[in-house]
């Protein structure tokens, strides 16, 4: 634990989730929950009929932008690099008539006092800055698994997630994992809750075998 105490158990379930990668720009933290969000699936409907920005160029950002073009008045997609997501997603987004795509633009600052009132972006080729008049900012640059506790105990996958089988078992006997910290696809609360129940049942069966 953080206090240095050591706890012993016959089995452990890791359910530490993921944390969103942040841009670390002015206004981001201050306006999180006030127009800045990290989940279009969760918060998209709040911004129905509004102008929003989606930050990122991978599949997460493209999927968020595709979700939002159906809900928002206008979507500004801002990517620091050329788009790196699947070609089929890029093609679908390019066909939307209410989206502007800014490639090789750096996101500089979220504007607003109590709520998001705009976003400053900069063309990295010309150095010119531009204000986007948006009321919502969806930051979709990926998630980082909170798997530090098992780093060195297990071989994590390429993005740092804990590998589990369909019974929530890790390669280490007695160690189980559930939710967003694992390799299970689709990072949603309802899925994580179900995976947690599976892990608890699997741990219970493991303990029964030990005592039997």
Structure, described:
The protein is of the alpha/beta class. The protein contains four helices and twelve strands; from the N terminus they run βββαβαβαβββββββα. The strands form four sheets. Strands 3-10-4-5-6 form a five-stranded parallel beta sheet, covered by helices on one side. It has a three-stranded antiparallel beta sheet with strand order 7-8-9, with no helix packed on it. A two-stranded parallel ribbon has the order 1-12. Helix 2 (59-69) packs parallel to helix 3 (87-95). The chain is elongated and about 65 Å long. The mean pLDDT is 95.
Mean pLDDT: 95
Question: End-to-end span in angstroms?
Answer: 31 Å
- What composes the largest sheet? 5 strands, parallel
Residues in β-strands, percent? 15-25%
Write the layout of secondary structure elements.
Blueprint: E1 12-14, E2 18-20, E3 36-37, H1 40-43, E4 51-55, H2 59-69, E5 74-79, H3 87-95, E6 99-103, E7 105-111, E8 118-123, E9 129-132, E10 136-139, E11 143-145, E12 175-177, H4 189-211
Parallel strand pairs: 1-12, 3-10, 4-5, 4-10, 5-6
Antiparallel strand pairs: 2-11, 7-8, 8-9
């Amino acid at each position: 634990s953080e206090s240095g105490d050591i706890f012993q158990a016959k089995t452990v379930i890791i359910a530490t989730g993921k944390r969103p990668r942040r841009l670390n720009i002015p206004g981001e933290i201050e306006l999180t929950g006030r127009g800045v969000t990290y989940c279009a699936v969760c918060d998209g409907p709040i911004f129905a009929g509004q102008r929003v920005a989606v930050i990122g160029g991978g599949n997460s950002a493209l999927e968020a932008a595709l979700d939002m073009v159906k809900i928002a008045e206008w979507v500004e997609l801002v990517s620091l690099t050329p788009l790196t997501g699947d070609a089929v997603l890029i093609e679908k987004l390019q066909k939307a008539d209410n989206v502007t795509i800014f490639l090789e633009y750096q996101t500089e600052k979220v504007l607003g006092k109590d709520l998001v009132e705009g976003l400053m972006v900069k063309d990295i080729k010309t150095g010119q800055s531009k204000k986007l008049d948006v009321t919502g900012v969806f930051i979709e640059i990926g998630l980082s698994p909170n798997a530090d506790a098992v780093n060195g105990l297990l071989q994590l996958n390429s993005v740092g997630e804990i590998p589990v089988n369909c019974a929530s078992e890790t390669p280490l006997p007695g160690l189980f994992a559930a939710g967003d910290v694992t390799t299970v696809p689709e990072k949603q609360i309802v899925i994580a809750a179900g995976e947690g129940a599976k892990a608890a049942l699997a741990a219970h069966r493991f303990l029964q075998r030990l005592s039997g």
